Amino acid sequence: TRLVLATRNAGKITELHAILADAGLDLELVGADAFPEIPDVKETGVTFAENALLKAHALAQATGLPAVADDSGLCVDVLNGAPGIFSARWSGTHGDDRANLNLLLAQLSDIADEHRGAHFACAAALALPDGTERVVEGRLEGTLRHTPTGTNGFGYDPILQPAGHEVTCAELTPQQKNAISHRGKAFRALVPVVKELLG
Length: 199
Ligand code: ITT
Prior knowledge:
22% strand, nucleotide metabolism, 5 helices, Maf protein, alpha/beta, binds inosine 5'-triphosphate, dITP/XTP_pyrophosphatase
């Protein structure tokens, strides 16, 4: 069976290939880039789960293949959960990871260490062409650094220090990050659902 990965975010694609390969799924993963004619869906949902389902349904409908999607972001305690679903466009330019991170750091410059709690959240959705849908979520709790450290990963990884660790997500190896990450947790929870529905 072919399964479409409904994302164009290169950082996510790398991680999803590793996470799903480790799960031993007997599926051929097809990137959304294989369907350049399909326009990106508007992310009009107000939750990670709603947006993940929107993306998965759009690709499943347009391709006639089962599709999985990821909607994710960084939720900062002192900002009442922002940037949240707006994480990819926090600075105004969609997908400018460096600008997004720098704006957030500037907004938090006066916030002391004990108030810098945050978490990554990920909703992993599966949609079938017949409209069947499932969605599960995962989180990674941590604290935000004052300066970026590390070059692995993507997005806000250089400033999120996972609870119980002394380094940022961008200093973890890909394997170490996937083992504890919001995305790893969400997609590992989705695997039995994929197996059940796609055999
Ligand atoms: P697709 O919709 O094509 O999947 P996107 O980048 O628009 O790609 P989102 O709307 O879900 O995806 O935005 C996710 C943003 O949240 C991403 O741009 C990062 O800034 C941040 N993010 C999500 N997961 C992250 C992770 O594991 N490490 C660091 N930042 C992450």
